[in-house]
Amino acid sequence: QVQPVESGGGLVQAGGSLTLSCTTSGRTYSSYALGWFRQAPGKEREFVSAISWSSGDTVYADSVKGRFTIYRDDGDNTVYLVMNSLKPADTAVYYCATHLDPSGRLASSESSVYDTWGQGTQVTVSS
Asked: Is residue 112 helix, strand or coil?
C-alpha cells in the first residue's frame, strides 16, 4: 500500500507562491494515479489537480488552471503542486490521494477513484 504524505503548506500573502509536495511511503509501485484535493472551512472537498504516473497526463480544476502546475519526480517518488498567484479563495487544507493504476494512464478528478489519502497540509492565503 502506498501512503501519501503532504508537506509544504504555510501562510502566504495574496499573489504569492507555495509548492506542495506529496511523497509516498511503503511499497512503491511504478503506476499509480495521484490527485490533489482541498477543503476549505465549511465547504465540501474539491478537486484541484491530478497526474497519471506513466503517461504524465495532467488535469486541473478550472479555478486553478494557469496558476497551478502539477509534476512528478521519478527519482524520489514525489509529486509537486506549484501554486502561483495565490488568492484568499485558495485557503484550505490540501490533501494528496493515490490509486493503484496498472495502466499508468489514469488522471482523475473524481475523489471516489482514490483509495489512500494523506493527512493534509494547511495553506492560508492572506489578503
From this structure: helix
Alpha-carbon distance values, 88 to 15, 20, 57, 62, 64 (Å): 9, 17, 28, 16, 13
> What stretches in the chain show pLDDT beneath 50?
none
Q: What is the DSSP string of 43-94?
A: S--EEEEEE-SSS--EEE-TTTTTTEEEEEEGGGTEEEEEE-S--GGG-EEE
CB 20 within 8 A of CB 97: no
The 3-state DSSP class for residue 110 equals coil
Q: Are 96 and 36 in contact (CB under 8 A)?
A: yes
Res 59: pLDDT: 97
Residue type, 107: A
Q: Which of 87, 124, 112 lies closest to 33, judged by CA?
A: 112
